Amino acid sequence: MEIDVVEASPAEVAADVLAFAVPEPVELPAAGQELDRLVDGGIRHLIEDGELQGERGKVTLLHTRNTLKAHRLAAGGTGGEADSEGLRTAAAAVARRASDLGGKTVAWILSENGLPADEQARAVVDGIALGPYDAGIWKTKEEHAPIERLVLCGPGAQEAAEEARRANVIAAWTNRCRDLVNAPPNVCTPTTLAEFAEETASRFEHLSYSALGPDEIREAGMGALTAVSQGSENAARLITLSYEPPSPTRGDVVLGLVGKAITFDSGGLSLKPANRMEEMKTDMGGGGAVLAATGAIAELGLPVKVLSVVPSCENMPGGGSYRPGDIITALNGKTIEVTNTDAEGRLILADALSYARRLNPSCVIDIATLTGAIVVALGHTATGLFGTDEALIAEVKAASERADERAWPLPLWDDYRELNKSDIADVKNSGGRPGGSISAGWFLREFVDGFPWAHLDIAGTAYTDREDASRVKGPTGTGVRLFSEFILARQG
Ligand code: BES
Ligand code: MN
Ligand code: ZN
Fold first, then answer.
1. What residue owns the CA closest to ligand 1's atom 17?
2. Nearest to residue 466, comparing CAs of 381, 377, 368?
3. What is the DSSP letter of 418?
4. pLDDT tens per residue across span 63-113
């Protein structure tokens, strides 16, 4: 999406839709009153008839019939409070409506409503860029085209320009992550993800790519990633992106990001039920978020070193598959009894976390569609947040709030550690149903050594099948905005 910031009066801005926010109860912004005069009282009319309302996500359209340069006016309802969430929802709803009408350009008038102009700009960019996402790109007829151009105008627009551009970059990478997650598992394989990473690195001078294939993974001693991948015809990859900022960095901090990328999780020999198994194409959502966030960070040239590690393979049943009962040795030398081949994410992450450690990160955050249990605990509203370092957990939580990707902490008390106790190996890979997300977190913790660590379980948030004013069905790209926000806060 292209972004323009103009000083012109809104009446002079050419667009398919010229939009402004209205709260509940309805109150016209100053610009709206001016526009109302130009459209001959048309807006007031709609308000008096009770047709134009400020309910969150409600869109009211008015044809301008050549009284303005824009073809239509849109009032986007933000609901009761003038906050970012309301504005984002209003913008998303306007963009979806504009897209349905074949609109390519949306202009948005910022208001003097108490919310700082840069926060308004960010919410509007997020709503317009992310709202009309089309998960149906594999249909032979296009149904929802994206908005190609956003024009910001009105009070404060100039000052908010930089924030708008930054938000636009992050939103574009969020949509790239959504495309990866949305891609079917016969298209998005470990090699496809590796190619995406390689292509991303080739676009930015300060980003470098490397990847290990199956032989190198085995020879390096990654017994866990080897075991999970051995049932599939599609070769595994351990993908690494390394970002060295162009400008001097703050201290020598290296942020490590690790993302689970199972391109299809059938469960392996502990086969999943058929119902909704197709959704397991999204099991690479953590890895996709890490790759896309690294792209965003490189494009913005943020002054923090980043090391991203994405273990990727398929979890399939077959004659060569790993079995329940197998004992495998992970990269750090610990032995693991496999009690359920469907608890594969923690296995590939175990090796990736040990691998990341060798590259000396200052702290590591991993992100994974790890457990069905987190959906039971937090639903589809929040990501589960775990870790060994209270300060890092607080930092991630704060970033998640700014990013509109809520994450909520869960405990890793010692009491839970024994859930993963094995009679015959150092640990077993499944701790059972009660506290299932916590035992998975504790399993990862057994492989974290020497750095502060946080873990995000996005099994409930990477994908949504609920449709509302601001969300479309399909992948959310969760994690991209969170990581970007995390780094933006660190650079200051
Ligand atoms: N990929 C799944 C978790 C998942 C569930 C992601 C629902 C998205 C939506 C993970 O690999 C898995 O299968 N976890 C098992 C662990 C169990 C066998 C200990 C689970 O949650 O049932
Ligand atoms: Mn699984
Ligand atoms: Zn999985």
1. 343
2. 381
3. G
4. 999 999 999 999 999 999 879 999 999 999 999 999 999 999 999 999 998
Distance between Cα 119 and ligand 1 center (Å): 36
Query: How does DSSP classify residue 451?
Result: S
Q: Measured between alpha carbons, how far is 119 from 151 in angstroms, rounded to an integer?
A: 16
Sheet holding 327-329, edge to edge: 327-329, 335-337, 427-428
> pLDDT tens digits, residue range 432-461?
999 999 999 999 999 999 999 999 999 999
Q: Which ligand is nearest to the CA of 279?
A: 1
Residue 25's Cβ-count burial label (10 Å; 0-12, 13-18, 19+) is exposed
Q: How far is the CA of 177 from the centre of ligand 1 (A)?
A: 21
Q: How far is CA 7 from CA 28, 61, 93, 147, in A?
A: 21, 24, 25, 21
Give me the active site residues, please.
272, 346
430 in ligand 1 pocket by Cβ < 6 Å? yes
DSSP 280-336: GGGGGHHHHHHHHHHHHHHHHT-SSEEEEEEEEEEE--STT---TT-EEE-TTS-EE
Residue 383 Cβ inside 6 Å of ligand 1? The answer reads no
Residues with CB in 5 Å of ion ligand 3: 262, 265, 283, 345
